[in-house]
Structures are given as structure tokens and as C-alpha cells.
Amino acid sequence: MLKNKKILIGIGGGIAVYKVxxxxxxxxxxxxxxxxxxxxxxREFVTPMTFEALTGxxxxxxxxxxxxxxxxxxxxxxxxxxxxxxxxxTASLLARLAHGIADDLLTTLMQVCxxxxxxAPAMNTSMWESAATQRNMKTLKQRGMHVVGPDKGNLACGxxxxxxxAELHTxxxxxxxxxxxxxxxxxxxxxxxGPTVESWDSVRILSSRASGKLGAILADLAAIRxxxxxxxxxxxxxDTHPKVTRSDIESAEQMLMACEQAATGADVFIGTAAxxxxxxxxxxxxxxxxxxxxxMHIELIVNPDIISHIATMHARPAKVIAFAAESSNHIEYAKxxxxxxxxxxxxxxxxxxxxxxxxxxxxxxxxxxxxIATETxxxxxxxxxxxxxxxxx
Length: 393
Ligand SMILES: Cc1cc2nc3c(=O)[nH]c(=O)nc-3n(C[C@H](O)[C@H](O)[C@H](O)COP(=O)(O)O)c2cc1C
Hints:
The structure is a single chain. Helix content is 35%, strand content 23%. The protein has 15 helices and 19 strands. It has an 8-stranded mixed beta sheet with strand order 12-11-8-13-16-17-18-19, with helices on both faces. Strand 1 (6-11), helix 1 and strand 2 (33-38) form a beta-alpha-beta unit. It is elongated, with a radius of gyration of 26 Å.
């Protein structure tokens, strides 16, 4: 997701510096170009060598560095970056930043920089709760700085409370909307995903092999692009971005209720969930015993068709997109479903996509059929969002 993005990490002198090495690696793995500035104090904890080796780029520290200042190093770096993460943001850095003090390379660059800045404070609880730090934070937020954490928990100083550096994946997630064009800002998207589970007795269920990965990725991508996203998730569906409003449900009937409530008047509804077509007519509260029988008759009844319901309900979402996982005649079945279910488009794909990381298929609408030839679920989801945003209804 960070391909070709230039991320500058400003590293302050706190005990959490060692975690920031892993953050740099995480960003590199996501294909970002990462550069680091370390304060003098940060270099007391970890040497620049660690960050140079991880990022493959020189670590900057000195404001009065003749070589880089010939090109105005602090200004060049501020212009170079697409976004800046300050981690750990020490109490001292927050204070200097709030008061416009530019006494080293990092604080000078922070005064110059007009790019999105994400502060990840980390410090002892009393330092965090101090009137000075809290006032500085208020000032910085008012100035439009983005903040992630700190978390509560055990601190390196032996105390317990607020002050831990936010989890690295949370810092990473918080960065994504800051460097992504907010093209879906103001829109409300509702997405469902994963399997549903129908109880037969207190331990046995009827479900499917759906992983929920694609629905979760779509929800994340839409939220990162600025949409207000509600994600209705079946059991086992992966975690979603903190900006996604998530409802976890089990059965098809619960899925229907949650979808109907969220989708009323929405801009987009995407039905990726593998909703069980049937449920048990007579579920049992207790665990069924094998008894002396050699066979058993089970009666299943048909579940509501969620996507058709959403597509035909009062205050229907402006765009309703269904998924059709088939094992053969994909396009033919999908075209039939497009009419039967009154949806605006169908993404046809093979059932083998369901539990794997790969994904490809076809986008089928009344305008025709287009192949989506992708390798990963992330690329597939990106293409689906592109098709949805380009739809004119
Ligand atoms: C062992 C040790 C751990 C420290 N941990 C933190 C910390 O987690 N957060 C913090 O704000 N300051 C911490 N400090 C204090 C900062 O290092 C100190 O305020 C320093 O001036 C910060 O400089 P900088 O903001 O330029 O990096 C620590 C100091 C020491 C000696």
C-alpha cells in the first residue's frame, strides 16, 4: 500500500526507540522509501547504523552538517517526505514542537514541514499526564497534527498506565489515510464479509470455507480513502482498520438485520459475505446425542436473500454490488443473477478464490463484462473499488 511513498521517521530519545526499528522495517516491507532523522538523545539508545542498515538510506542527525546544508538539508528532507512519523515523540519533542523551538535538525524540519505529521508519543505516565504535556498535545492537535497512542500498559520504568508507544500496526494503519487521496470522503459504504454460521445444536454448525479476507480488505481500502465504512463480519473474518465501524454477527438472519440497518440510504453496498443459503428448521439447545439411530433426517429452510433484499428495500443504497462465487459457467450465472437480484453490478469469481490469498474474476454490469486479471486480493479489491467509483448510476 505504500508503494512509491516517501516516509520520514523522526526518532526521539525515548526507551521505545528499539521498537521504531521494527516500524521502519514494516514500512520498507510495504514498499515505502524510508528515511530517518535521529535526535542526539535517540542516538544514545540505538546507533544510526541500525536504521541505515534497515532502510538502506543515510540517517540524518546534524543540523549544522556542511555537506547536506549546502543543499539546505532540513528543507530538502521536509519537501522530500510525503508524510512524517515522529516516534517515539518524547515529552521534550512535543514541547519544542508546540512552542516552535527549532534547536536541532528534527525540530527545525518539523517547523518547515507542511506534509501530514503523525505523532506517536511514548513516555512515563506522569510525564504524559503532566499539565505541560497535555497542554502541548492540545496545541498540536489544534494545529492539525495527527496523533496515535499512547497506549496503556506496563511501562519500561516499571509503572503501569498510559505512555506505551502505540502498537506498530496501529501506527502503520494510522499513517495510511494520511498519504492516501480522500476520494471517498463524505460517502457511506456498507460491506459484508466472511461466512455465516447456523447452529444445529449447542456445538454443531452449518457454515462455509469463506475467509472474509476480501471483504475486510475492501472495508479497509474504502476507509483509508475516506469513506465512512460499516463492515458486517461473519465469524473468523480478519481484523479491520480502526476507522472501520464493525459489527460481528453469526447467522444469516443477524447478518440481514445488521446490513439492513447500516445500508439504509448508504452510497454503496458490497455483498462479499458467503451467506448460508439454508438454516436448520429446528435447532437444538442441547448437544444432540448419537443415540441408537443409524441415520438422521435434518430439515433445512431457506435463509433470506440478503443482497436482493438490500437491492430492493426502501432507501436502497445508490450502488449495490453483489459477488457470485461459482465453480463453472461463471459469467452466465453472474449475468442471470444481475437481473434476478436487481443489483447494479456483480463480481464473478471462482469458488477457489474463497479461502485463498489469490483473486481474479470479472466485473459484470449492464454495460458489459470486464476481466479483472489480478494476482492478490489487495489488487483485486483495488480494481473493484475503481470500478465502483467509475460507475454512473
Ligand atoms: C533511560 C531513559 C529513558 C527515557 N525514556 C523517555 C521516554 O520514553 N519518553 C520521553 O519523553 N523521554 C524519555 N527520556 C528523556 C529524554 O531522553 C530526554 O527528555 C531527552 O532530552 C529527549 O530528547 P529528544 O526529544 O531531543 O529526543 C528518557 C531518558 C532516559 C535516560
